[in-house]
Amino acid sequence: MATTRKQDLQHMAATLTSWAGQIADLRAKARSAGTERQLVIGGELTALRQQQRAYAAQIADTQGASAAVFRDMQRGAERIAGEFRRLYLQTASRFPG
Questions:
Q1: What pTM was computed for the model?
Q2: Is the pLDDT of residue 1 over 90?
Protein backbone atom coordinates (compact mmCIF):
# COMPACT_ATOMS: atom_id res chain seq x y z
CA MET A 1 0.00 0.00 0.00
CA ALA A 2 1.34 3.40 -0.95
CA THR A 3 1.89 5.95 1.77
CA THR A 4 0.75 9.53 1.66
CA ARG A 5 3.06 12.50 1.77
CA LYS A 6 1.83 13.24 5.30
CA GLN A 7 2.71 9.69 6.42
CA ASP A 8 6.11 9.94 4.78
CA LEU A 9 6.83 13.24 6.52
CA GLN A 10 5.68 11.80 9.86
CA HIS A 11 8.03 8.86 9.35
CA MET A 12 10.89 11.20 8.50
CA ALA A 13 10.20 13.30 11.61
CA ALA A 14 10.16 10.14 13.74
CA THR A 15 13.48 9.14 12.18
CA LEU A 16 15.02 12.45 13.25
CA THR A 17 13.74 11.95 16.79
CA SER A 18 15.20 8.44 16.87
CA TRP A 19 18.55 9.70 15.57
CA ALA A 20 18.68 12.35 18.30
CA GLY A 21 18.35 9.57 20.88
CA GLN A 22 20.99 7.44 19.20
CA ILE A 23 23.44 10.35 19.07
CA ALA A 24 22.77 11.18 22.74
CA ASP A 25 23.38 7.54 23.69
CA LEU A 26 26.69 7.46 21.81
CA ARG A 27 27.72 10.79 23.33
CA ALA A 28 27.06 9.40 26.84
CA LYS A 29 29.10 6.27 26.08
CA ALA A 30 31.91 8.39 24.64
CA ARG A 31 32.27 10.30 27.91
CA SER A 32 33.43 7.12 29.62
CA ALA A 33 35.86 6.19 26.83
CA GLY A 34 39.59 6.89 26.90
CA THR A 35 40.93 10.14 25.52
CA GLU A 36 42.10 8.71 22.19
CA ARG A 37 38.81 6.94 21.62
CA GLN A 38 36.94 10.13 22.56
CA LEU A 39 38.73 11.99 19.77
CA VAL A 40 37.80 9.38 17.17
CA ILE A 41 34.24 9.12 18.38
CA GLY A 42 33.93 12.91 18.60
CA GLY A 43 34.65 13.16 14.89
CA GLU A 44 32.14 10.45 14.12
CA LEU A 45 29.49 12.15 16.28
CA THR A 46 30.09 15.35 14.33
CA ALA A 47 29.53 13.43 11.09
CA LEU A 48 26.32 11.92 12.49
CA ARG A 49 25.03 15.37 13.47
CA GLN A 50 25.84 16.63 9.95
CA GLN A 51 23.78 13.79 8.47
CA GLN A 52 20.98 14.63 10.91
CA ARG A 53 21.02 18.29 9.81
CA ALA A 54 21.08 17.31 6.12
CA TYR A 55 18.09 15.01 6.65
CA ALA A 56 16.20 17.79 8.47
CA ALA A 57 16.97 20.12 5.56
CA GLN A 58 15.55 17.56 3.13
CA ILE A 59 12.33 17.51 5.16
CA ALA A 60 12.14 21.30 5.23
CA ASP A 61 12.76 21.50 1.48
CA THR A 62 9.77 19.25 0.74
CA GLN A 63 7.27 21.87 1.92
CA GLY A 64 5.21 22.86 -1.09
CA ALA A 65 7.18 20.64 -3.47
CA SER A 66 5.42 18.97 -6.37
CA ALA A 67 4.89 15.20 -6.23
CA ALA A 68 7.83 14.53 -8.56
CA VAL A 69 10.16 16.83 -6.61
CA PHE A 70 8.96 15.27 -3.35
CA ARG A 71 9.87 11.77 -4.64
CA ASP A 72 13.34 13.04 -5.63
CA MET A 73 13.80 14.58 -2.20
CA GLN A 74 12.67 11.34 -0.58
CA ARG A 75 15.36 9.46 -2.50
CA GLY A 76 17.91 12.01 -1.29
CA ALA A 77 16.66 11.56 2.28
CA GLU A 78 16.95 7.78 1.91
CA ARG A 79 20.59 8.16 0.84
CA ILE A 80 21.24 10.36 3.87
CA ALA A 81 19.51 7.82 6.12
CA GLY A 82 21.68 5.04 4.70
CA GLU A 83 24.83 7.02 5.40
CA PHE A 84 23.60 7.81 8.92
CA ARG A 85 22.99 4.09 9.58
CA ARG A 86 26.47 3.22 8.29
CA LEU A 87 28.13 5.87 10.47
CA TYR A 88 26.03 4.95 13.50
CA LEU A 89 26.90 1.25 13.26
CA GLN A 90 30.58 2.12 12.77
CA THR A 91 30.56 4.33 15.86
CA ALA A 92 28.45 1.97 17.99
CA SER A 93 30.83 -0.89 17.18
CA ARG A 94 33.57 0.96 19.08
CA PHE A 95 31.80 0.18 22.36
CA PRO A 96 31.67 -3.27 23.98
CA GLY A 97 28.27 -4.97 24.25
A1: 0.84
A2: no
